[in-house]
Amino acid sequence: MNAAELFVNCLEAEGVECIFAVPGEENLDLLEALRPSSIELVVTRHEQAAGFMAACHGRLTGQPGVCLSTLGPGATNLVTAAAYAELGAMPMVMITGQKPVRTSKQGHFQIIDMVDLMRPVTRYTRQVVSGANVPARVREAFRRAEEERPGATHLELPEDILHEEVEAEPIPACQTRRPVAEDKAVDRAVAAIEQARRPLIMVGAGANRKMTSRMLRRLIDKTAIPFFSTQMGKGVVGESECWMGTAALSEGDYVHRVIEQADCIINVGHDVVEKPPFLMQPDGPVVIHINFSSAGVDPVYFPQLEVVGDIANAIWQISEQIEVQDHWDFDFAHRIRTAMLEELGSGADLDGFPVHPRRVVHAVREAMPEDGIVSLDNGLYKVWFARNYRTTLPNTLLLDNALATMGAGFPVAMGARLVHPDRKILAVCGDGGFMMNSQELETAVRMNMDLVVLILRDDAYGMIRWKQQDMQLPDFGMDFGNPDFVRYAESYGAAGHRVEHTDQLAPLLKKCLDQPGVHLIDCPIDYSDSQRELFENIPARARALTP
Question: Higher-confidence residue: 268 or 350?
């Protein structure tokens, strides 16, 4: 066989079921090797979208998603997706083409050093310089992508290497087990929690593993210790009677009143790459860091105790040893929770038009089933969804709070559709973010996907305008125009809808989710009071509650 065929065999040995791609002439041999294989080729309209879809596949399955591009501009278009996966801890393998490395008649045409360019945004990047090296390079790329902490890897395949005749076999994956935390570290953590009066659990993105989720549920059920989540930890533990909210802001919300009163915070799977869920202070509570790796010290994060090793095992050990203490006091936390839930449920009565963000969240929650998946792009609405949208299952609110890039929401929803074809899928995008990858409407229609795209339109870069106002700067440089989104959707063969009064939104969402095909909903949104509500009114109501 040639190296291209060997490469595809190695991908099959890794369990790859689909590749998201915008192919080019440099990888036509690889494309031909894919044609008779068991791997589905998903052709997208932009490499960035292919990367976002691959990252989502990795996030939802735990197995690296794979994307493919040609050299030069095709490869550079993957850089944002690489950073998205690397910062967000999503396993992904990128394959890019390259001109022949031994003899080339085109000089430096389209050639850029992609291995070095990818180095800052991946944990492994290599050029394959020999067909005989293919099995080792592929195995290492997958191993590095899926180890804890997961992330992005990259392989460059020169055109002439793909032609090479080779005699080699894929290298099988070996079974590995992560090391468990040291007993003494667990003992110190248990002692700190038992000695505290108001312990509090924080659930981060690193806890988003099936076994860790089960162990956390067991610990919380046994101890009734209150918990909250970071944005990317939402849903890891169902938002039950011990749930204190989601840290959508760094300070001032209801959950931060509970954090202020806590004297021991157990951070499970937290990574400083996420926007800080709270700001640590030198005279603040004892913070216990439970993660696969030690804590990266930061001015806002410097834990006093660390339990390093397999997270699920560490939580299991703590759960086995810990005893419920009579001196634990969760009364104030539960009073905060009662007030928070009352406020979270108040969006249904906001009748103004354009629609208030709180009313949007309420309508989406009402329309989506418990296991339905909402994929958020990045905008001001993300803050409202993070704090107001309640989840009971992991990975049912997909958002990016690490790179926080615009343009990912719609492709991520498409990736979720392929992983979970039996679930309701909704992408929530601002008009700015949607237009960055709106061409993927054609991909979704061509692939007969059933999904809904809700565009929250304010004809501006709304979140930046909000920050501009917060800095008391003049309103400048934020406005743009939009197409007629209904006709735009219809031009791709999708169904277009427009919200013309607030009461129309929830039933329209339900109708579209129950119908086959791709549906796009144009919904005007009003952010005018978000600054006052999020940073003045809500903190004022939270501060009114005293221990």
Answer: 268
Q: In this predicted structure, what is the pLDDT of residue 241?
A: 84
In this structure, are residues 452 and 423 in contact, taking their beta carbons and an 8 Å threshold?
no
Number of H helices, E strands in the chain: 23, 18
The mean pLDDT value for 451-463 works out to 94
Tell me the C-alpha to C-alpha distance, in Å, between residue 385 and each of 91, 303, 344, 428. Answer: 25, 29, 11, 10
Mind giving me the DSSP string for 60-115? HHSSPEEEEE-SHHHHHTTHHHHHHHHHHT--EEEEEEE--SS--SSTTTT---HH
pLDDT at 249 over 90: no
Q: Distance between CA atoms of 6 and 183, rounded to whole angstroms?
A: 45
My answer on whether omega of the bond before 354 falls inside 30° of 0, hence cis, is yes
Q: Can you read off the two tokens belonging to residue 33?
A: 């090797």
d(CA 374, CA 43): 23
* Contacts of the segment 388-391: beta carbons below 8 A, 24+ positions apart: 388/344, 388/347, 388/358, 388/361, 388/362, 389/361, 389/364, 389/365, 390/239, 390/344, 390/365, 391/234, 391/235, 391/238, 391/239
> What's the pLDDT tens digit per position in 509-526?
999 999 999 999 999 999
Please tell me the pTM assigned to this model.
0.94
| Same domain, yes or no: 375 and 324 | no
Question: Which domain-ending residue is among 131, 163, 195?
Answer: 163
CATH of the domain at 22: 3.40.50.970
Beta bridge partners of residue 20, listed in sequence order = 42, 67
Distance CA 380, CA 531 (A): 10
Strands 495-498 and 518-524: parallel
Instruction: Reply yes or no on whether the pLDDT at 240 is more than 90.
Output: no
* Within a domain: 52: yes
369-398 pLDDT, tens per residue?
Answer: 999 999 999 999 999 999 999 998 999 999
Give the residue from 494, 536, 530 showing the smallest Cα distance to 361: 530
- Does the residue 409 lie in any domain? yes
Q: What are phi and psi of 34, to 5 degrees?
A: -75, -30
Can you tell me the distance from the alpha carbon of 240 to that of 311, in angstroms, rounded to the nearest whole number? 21
Are both 199 and 157 inside the same structural domain? Answer: no
Judgement on whether residues 368 and 437 belong to the same structural domain of the protein: yes
Domains: count for the chain? 3
Cα separation of 358 and 197, whole Å?
35
Question: Burial, 312: exposed, middle or buried (Cβ in 10 Å; 0-12, 13-18, 19+)?
Answer: buried
Assess contact for 411 and 52: CB atoms under 8 A. yes
Residue 296 has pLDDT above 90, yes or no: no
Residue 308: φ, ψ to 5° = -105, 125
